[in-house]
Amino acid sequence: MNIWTAQSNPTKQTLAAWFLTAMGGVLLYAFRHFSNLNTKAGFLLGLFLLVLGVWGLLATGTQTITIDPKRRRITVADTTRFGTKERVIRFDEITHVGIGYLGKKSNFVEWYYLSLTLRDGKRFALFAPGRFYDGASNRANVEGWRDRLEGYLRG
C-alpha cells in the first residue's frame, strides 16, 4: 500500500475570502447612513462579512493530509502565515469513518468530507469543507476516499 497524500487549494480559499471582504465593503458603503433599522442591519451584516473576509485572508493556508498505511497513521499539517500545526492520528484511535456533509443542493453549494470518530468520542473532519479539496463536492468521490481509508484501517 502506498502513502496517500492530499493537499487543499489555498487559491480558492483566498478567492472566497476576497469575495466576502468585497461584499462586506459594498454593504458597509451602501448602508452607511443609518436612516432606519434595515440600513443598520445592512451595515452590521457588511461589517460581519468584512471581518470574516479579512480573518479568512489572514488564516488562509495549505492543509496537507498524509495517510501512511505502513506506519498506520494520518498526519494533518496546517500551514498558515502564523506557522505550521501538525496533528497525528493513529489508525488504532479511529473507531468509525463516516461521511459528513455541508451545504444545500438548492443553493448549489455541497461539500462532503470524511468524519472520523475517535476512541475518545471526539470527531475529526478529514478533507474539511472550506479547504477546497479537489473532488470534495462529489459524494461518489468521497465515498471512494472512505472505502480507501477503511481498506487501510483493515490492512
Question: What does this protein structure show overall?
Answer:
- There is one protein chain.
- The relative contact order is 0.15.
- A four-stranded antiparallel β-sheet has the order 1-2-3-4, with no helix packed on it. A three-stranded antiparallel β-sheet has the order 5-6-7, covered by helices on one side.
- Helix 1 packs antiparallel against helix 2.
- The chain is about 40% helix and about 35% strand.
- The protein has three helices and seven strands; from the N terminus they run βααββββββα.
Placed side by side, the strands forming the largest sheet appear as 1-2-3-4
Oligomer: single chain
Mean pLDDT: 93
Strand content: 25-35%
Round the Cα radius of gyration to an integer and report it. 19 Å
General shape: elongated
User: How many extended strands?
Assistant: 7
Structural class: alpha+beta
For the termini, the CA-CA separation is 9 Å
Unreliable runs: none
Largest β sheet strand count, sense and barrel closure? 4 strands, antiparallel
Proportion in helices? 25-40%
Question: What is the N-to-C succession of helices and strands?
Answer: EHHEEEEEEH
SS summary, helix count: 3
